[in-house]
Amino acid sequence: MTTYKFLATDSASAMEEVVKKLGPDALIVSTSKRGNKVEIEATDSIPKDTTKERLAEKGNFSDILHSKIDVLREKQRHRIYNKSLDQSFQKEGSRKSAKKNDSSDMIRIKDQLNQLQSMLAGMVITEEKNLNEVAANSVPLKLRQFEFSPEVIMSLKPAFEGLSIERGTASFLRAFSKKIACEEVNEVLKSQVTFIVGSSGVGKTTLSAKLAARMMEDKDSSKPSLVSTESHLSSKKDDLSYFARLLNIQKFHYQLEQSVDGFEKLCNGKRIVDLSSIAEESKYFIKDVKDKIGATKVATILCLPTGANKQFIEDQIATYINLNPIIAFSKADECRLYPRELSVLANKNVKVGFITGSKTILSSLAVTEPEVLASHLESYLIDEVNYE
Q1: Taking the domain 183-368, which CATH number applies?
Q2: pLDDT tens, position by position, for the chain (388 residues)?
């Protein structure tokens, strides 16, 4: 780029010289003082990479301005959107929080209602004089007075709904008996090995003898053998040996510490085992025998005394539940078989197969078919209904 310097007394005079020399499009490069004069340096050649081309690259002022405005508008839109989004989230959070609180309230209310329902269901009304006629003659009320559990009553509601108190109660007892009575008792009697389990003193030994006598009633069946597992027979009366002689069948003694193979070779035919060992040892032994000869050939009968309290029955069932036992109630001659005991069986989904209550051995074991059990319950419950 070629530059020219113009010196004059003032700026106006110097500019006149520039225009004369370079024309009106001249580019002023610099202006400076030289003593009392003014010096202007100018040129008429503009490099290609300056001015217009640089302006073209950068865009004109209008374009730049509008682009800046667009950026500002976009930022503003984002701020508005984000603010709106935050508000939406806050509102949604509030709604969710409110919904959560509502849900918590509903859960709390339901829990309170369930507790109230349980309290009401567990009540036993003993005074009917202040009840209205409909309530006093209610089948559920009567069943609760008999001490059937609320869960059992509600589960069998279709059996008595819409019936009179007499017919409804009788219908409930039939349905209840069908629910808890074992319908496979005959299959149990055909088992190759039958274990009698339960606490000491509940009547296992006597039940073993009565079960043997019951099996012998089947003429096509071989005689069963009785097996004792007591460790010290010499220190007490050997009742099982006495019953074996009475029934003219064999009696063996076996200790659980021996191998399962030894038990399998102990005798031929059916065997009834009076398990007098502690529960854990008995359960392990029964499992080993099932694994050895097959579970379908083994039956377990849990002996419970009639009149035992609810907690005892629940504990005994919990102890042996994995063996899928059938219940046999003993000592029915000493105490009634009350609904509160049987309700435990229904709630635990355990079946009762036998009831016995006689000191005699022969023909003294009742098989609790549904009709037999219903008749047993009706014999004293329905009488109480009619009496009242």
Answers
A1: 3.40.50.300
A2: 678 888 888 777 777 887 788 877 677 777 777 788 878 888 876 554 444 444 444 445 445 444 544 555 555 555 555 555 556 556 655 665 555 566 777 777 777 666 655 555 545 454 545 454 445 458 898 899 899 999 999 999 999 998 988 899 999 999 999 999 998 888 889 999 999 999 988 999 999 999 999 999 887 778 899 999 886 654 446 889 999 999 999 999 988 888 888 888 888 889 999 998 788 889 999 999 999 999 999 999 999 999 898 999 999 999 999 999 999 999 888 888 889 889 999 999 999 999 988 778 887 888 888 988 888 788 877 655 454 4
pTM above 0.70, yes or no: no
The answer to whether residues 273 and 193 touch, using CB atoms and an 8 Å cutoff, is: yes
